[in-house]
Specification:
Distance between the termini: 32 Å
Largest sheet: 10 strands, mixed
Number of domains: 1
CATH topology: UDP-N-acetylmuramoyl-L-alanine:D-glutamate ligase
Radius of gyration: 18 Å
CATH superfamily: Ribokinase
Shape: globular
Order of helices and strands: EHEHEHEEEHEHEHEHHHEEEHHHH
């Protein structure tokens, strides 16, 4: 039996901390978001452009997308900086020299949102896991990792995985029914085995580093829609720019995301049927304000 904690607003406020008068953008971290492909350019936009990352407090967000889809992303770039990645027909291609330049100076990187399965995902994954950064993996990065779990044994990166139940089934080899029957036990065992932080996403998400266990109860059924994971990844990556403990990044990120979803739903007249992921992204600022004023 695990001692599970349900975080409250005071806990999240403590994690976010206070902004000091003599601080600057570098104080709050340079972070990067690697995502996008011809079919899924919207995933990168949601993570980096729909206010999710910047509104969560990162100092500078570097949005990194395949060169061929930059025209689709560029109109949405305002506060973020945009970096073109080498590509083949719109999918990420591996060039170590270019990538090391693109990743230079970043404290945290989120990888996987909308990259698809036709690019050099494995090579990107190997490089990112070898870097001394905070690394958040989502979506297609998780699908690639599930076939190459041996990479986790020699990782340097401080790693956070954000699988939903189906993705965790592929990662762990455990059936969905077994996962759902005892999500905490399976999440803790996986996080402990691979020495990482895990957010097992469900209607009540389990957050663990293999020792400590938290359960996030914030959120709404309206968030069960395409792109919600991309918004969460943007928030988590931003927080990793200035929050040192990766478990606290996960706790605060899931809470802010869930609260933003609740605010978005209430703002739109409690219409969960018509809710989309960008509604949550645009409510992140209000969610953070609510927490800071608690």
């Amino acid at each position: 039996m695990y001692n599970t904690v349900i975080p409250d607003m005071r806990c999240i406020k403590r994690i976010l901390g206070e902004r000091q008068p003599n601080s600057h953008k570098g104080t709050y971290g340079y972070v990067g978001l690697v995502g996008g492909s011809p079919e899924y350019s919207g995933a990168a936009k949601l993570a980096g452009l729909s206010c999710a990352a910047m509104r969560s407090g990162a100092g500078v967000v570097r949005l990194m997308v395949p060169k061929s889809i930059m025209h689709a992303v560029m109109p949405y770039v305002v506060e973020s900086t945009l970096c073109a990645l080498p590509d083949r027909q719109g999918y990420i291609a591996y060039d170590e020299r270019e990538l090391r330049t693109a990743f230079k100076g970043l404290k945290a990187i989120g990888f996987g949102m909308g990259v698809g399965q036709k690019g050099d995902n494995l090579e990107y994954l190997k490089l990112l896991l070898s870097l001394p950064i905070k690394l958040i993996l989502d979506a297609d990065a998780l699908n690639t990792l599930s076939k190459h779990l041996y990479l986790l044994d020699d990782k340097v990166a401080d790693l956070l995985l954000t699988p939903h139940v189906g993705e965790f089934e592929r990662l762990s080899g455990i059936s969905k029914n077994d996962i759902l029957s005892n999500p905490i036990e399976h999440a803790v065992a996986f996080a402990k085995r691979y020495k990482l932080t895990l957010v097992l996403i469900n209607h009540e998400s389990v957050i663990t580093d293999g020792e400590r266990v938290f359960v996030n109860k914030r959120g709404t059924v309206g968030m069960a829609t395409a792109g919600s994971g991309d918004v969460l990844s943007g928030i988590l990556t931003a927080l990793a720019g200035y929050v040192d403990d990766m478990l606290e990044v996960a706790i605060a990120g899931t809470y802010i995301n869930g609260l933003a979803g609740e605010i978005a739903l209430e703002t739109d007249g409690n219409n969960s049927f018509s809710m989309v992921a960008s509604d949550t992204a645009f409510a992140v600022k209000k969610a953070v304000t609510t927490i800071l004023n608690a």
